[in-house]
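sorry for the late reply, my laptop died twice this morning and i had to redo everyting from scratch. anyway the thing you sent over, i finally got around to it. pasting the sequence first so we're on the same page, its 116 residues, then the predicted structure underneath. double check i copied it right bc i was rushing
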Amino acid sequence: MHPEASRLSVQKWKAKSKDAISRYRKKWLAENREKVLLQQRRKYQEKLDFIREVVGTVCVDCTEDRPAAIQYHHPNGRSEKKAPTLCGWEKLKEEVMHLIAICATCHSVRHRGELA
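ok and here's the structure:
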């Protein structure tokens, strides 16, 4: 079979089988939920550890140093729609250079414009 014909037949099958594919994916996710959640948590933690290593865990405004209190901020009006930990690795490596470590209180104050 010609590769183009094969690709078209796969597309036709997918179009006809959309409901079956959807049911299969839902069933698979239900059966593998714990494994998927564990993998997502692991990826999140790896990315957070990377950000902490590169940016640090001390607030640049008040020197708060408890890692649980630290958030990461895009200064200079730079804004992203996704949290850095939700980006892919390539985007994360690009974005991490623009982040600063800041505690939750100072972050809130900055967003209200009370601190430069």
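The CA atoms of residues 44 and 114 lie 31 Å apart.
thats about all i looked at so far, will dig more tmrw
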